[in-house]
Amino acid sequence: MLPLKQLLSRKPWIISLCVVLGIGLWLLSGQTSDDATKQDPSAATRQSSTPPLAKVVVEQFQTSPTQKAITLYGRTAPDREATLAAEVAGTVEQLQIRKGQRVTKGQPLIRLDKADRELQLKRAQALLRVREKEFNASRSLRAKGLQGEVALSQAEAALIEAKATVRNLELALEDTVVTAPFDGIIENLLVEQGDYLGVGDPVATIVDLNPLVIGADVNERHIQQIQRGMDANITLVDGATTKGELRYQASVADPQTNTFAIEIEIPNPDMRLNAGASASVELVLDTREAIKVSPSMLALDEAGNLGIKTLVKDNKVSFVPISIVKVEPDGIWLDGVGKQVSVITVGQGFVRDGENVIPVQQAEAK
């Protein structure tokens, strides 16, 4: 038998025959396809108009109890602050405290010169004894009918005046010593030994740092959800944390800001915490069942409502409106989604509510 190459070279009509047969078979297949299209013209239309289903990545989320809270900002301040003043005139005889010193209620702080107040008091006390004897004698004579009612009244008035004089001099003598009105710290000392003070001249400033107080403002949307006695989580500017309690909330909003003033009380028995420091206050409003998702999973519906796109029965997309419970640096807590939900985490921007999709689990997508 001759090789194929030699056979084709001797009989070239074989090549032409093969080409003709190939063209005929191709034309025959096209005609068959056209006939099928003519018999069912909608088949080609359906094939060309039906888009392929989109693939999305889905992850299962389980709700957990989550505290809904608001965070406010304020500054620590003393619970009480008082500027002490001289109640009698005199020269500063002795300073018994230093600036920044802790003092207790009733502790002597400054002593003024008593001058002749002790002698005046002794004289007034002697006069009081005379008035008491005169009044007793007048009352005895009145009882015997030997003296009139007017004389008795005059003796009684003189006695009362003598008692008032003694009491005034006793108070003046006591006021030569300036004492602390409450436990606190001497913030400012405004006098030196030898200074002369008139009545009402400032002497020192004392502050009470136990407890500390943080003032803040609450939005009108949240004021109905807070109440006195609520616990507060406090974070100070240095990162230290402590607990506090809501002790006051305003009943009338600030007309300029439409916010309500509140006060948080922080125990500070050792007065270690200072006043005037910045602080953040977290008030827990309630506890809700929520899931934690990345902000990239959020979507908007056609009406502009914020929500997430979930996967329901038959692999259908369902848009679920949500509310934000809490925002953290690594995610957002959302409620309103039920106990368990399948959230579309990748591809949610390319599918619409009600569309069918091909789900791929988060673990399989990695």
UniProtKB/TrEMBL annotation:
Signal peptide residue numbers: none
Top-level taxon in the UniProt lineage: Bacteria
Keywords, sorted A to Z: Membrane, Transmembrane, Transmembrane helix
Keyword Zinc found: no
Multidrug resistance protein MdtA-like barrel-sandwich hybrid domain sequence ranges: 80-208
Domain CusB-like beta-barrel positions: 215-283
Pfam families associated with the record: Beta-barrel_RND_2, BSH_RND
Membrane-spanning parts: 12-29
PANTHER family: BLR2860 PROTEIN, MULTIDRUG RESISTANCE PROTEIN MDTA
Family from the record: Belongs to the membrane fusion protein (MFP) (TC 8.A.1) family.
Protein name from the UniProt record: Efflux RND transporter periplasmic adaptor subunit
The species this protein was found in: Photobacterium atrarenae
